[in-house]
Amino acid sequence: MSVLRDFQLPFPEKDSIFTVAGLAAKAKQTNNDVIDGTLGALYDDNGKLITYDSIFKIVRSLTNEQFASYAPITGGEEYKETIKEWILPNKNTIPSCEVNASMGGSGAIYLTLSQFFNENDDVILLSPYWGPYDLFVKSRKLNTVKTPFLVDEKFNIDSVRELLIKSAKEKKRVGLFINSPANNPTGYSLTNEEWKQLIQAVNEASKYGVVVLVNDIAYIDYSEDLSNSREYMNYFNELSENVILSICVSFSKSLSFYGLRLGALIYYTKNEDDLALLRKGITLETRATWSNPNHSAINSVNILAKDKEIFNKENRKYASLLLNRGKTFTKFAKQYNLPMYPYKEGFFITIPGCENNEDYCERLMKRNVFLVNQGDSVRIAICAIKENDMERLVKILKEELK
Ligand code: PLP
Question: What global pTM score does this model have?
C-alpha cells in the first residue's frame, strides 16, 4: 500500500533553473570566466546582487512593533492605495478594482488560480513562458493549453482569440496568462495596439463563458519608457461583464524584495455584487493560507510611496544597466547572425537554440556558459551577465549551434 494521495504534482523533482544555477555556482569557485545566465535576479557588473538603498533604509528604520505586529489580512487600506497609485496609470483606470496583499507575485498567481476557476478549467499559456506557470496551474487541478506567444515577431493574437473562444464554448470558463511588459523569458512587451486587439478578443470570448485575464507584471518597473508603461491598462475599462481581470504585482524585482515576499493582486470585474463576493473569497483564501502578509514589507512600501524621488533615480539607473546589456546582446546577435526572440526590455533574452537544446546546453556548459534549457528555446538571464561578457557569450552561442 502507498501512503501517497491520488493526486501528485506532475513536475520533475529537480527544479531545472536551480539545478543549473547550482552547477554554475560550483564552476565559479574555480573559474573566473564562467558566464552564469541562470537566475532571475539583477546583479551588477561585479557579480553583486543589486539592492535598492532607498527601500532598505526605510526597512531598517522601522520600529520593532512595525516588524512584529500582524498586518491586516488584505494588507490594509493604505497598502491598497499605495498599490493603486504605484501600478495604475491614473485614478480613472478600473476605479472600483480591489487589492489584496500577497506573498510575492507567486502569491497573487496562487490567489487567482484558487478563487477565479473551477477544477479542470483551461488556462492558456503562451510559449515560451516562465516554467513555474505549469506547476501553478496543475497544482490547482487546472488544465494547461499552450500556443506560441509570438508569430513573425508579433503577438500571436489570432491563435489566442481562437483558443479563448474554443475553451469558453467548451468549458464555460477560461484563463489566459499574459506576462507583459518585459516578458519572462523573451523580453517582449505587447504594444498598445496589441493590447487593444487582445481586449477585443477577450470580450468576444466572454460571450460564451467567463474569461479570466491574468496580467503578470513582475518586471514592469524595468520598462524602457516607464512613464508610459501602464498606459495599456486604460483598455481594461472596456472589459465586458463576463470577465475577471487579475493583475499580479510583485515587489521581488521592483524593490529587490526577492526574499521579503511582497506583492499584490489587483482584481476587477464589472458587476459590483460579483466583485464583493470575489473579495470575500480572496480574503478567506488569504486567511486560509498565509493568513496575513509581511507587515514590515508593507509598512516600508507605504512609507516609500509618500516620496519616491530617490527610489525613482535608483530604478532608472538599474533599468539602464539592464537595457544596455539587452541592447549590446542584440547588437552582437545581429553581427554574428544568432537568431533570437525580439527583446525590448526586462531581465531575460531567449534564443530558439537548436533541435536538441539539452545537448546544446551541455555543450555550452563545457565552455563555461550556464543557461536554462526551455525545451524549444534557451533562456539567458542577462540580469546576471556583465555587459563586457556579451560579445564572448554570443560568439560561444553561435559556435555551439548545431
Ligand atoms: N512572474 C514571473 C514571470 C516571474 O518571473 C516571477 C519570478 O521570477 C514571478 C511572477 C513571481 O515572483 P515572486 O513570487 O518572487 O514575487
Answer: 0.97
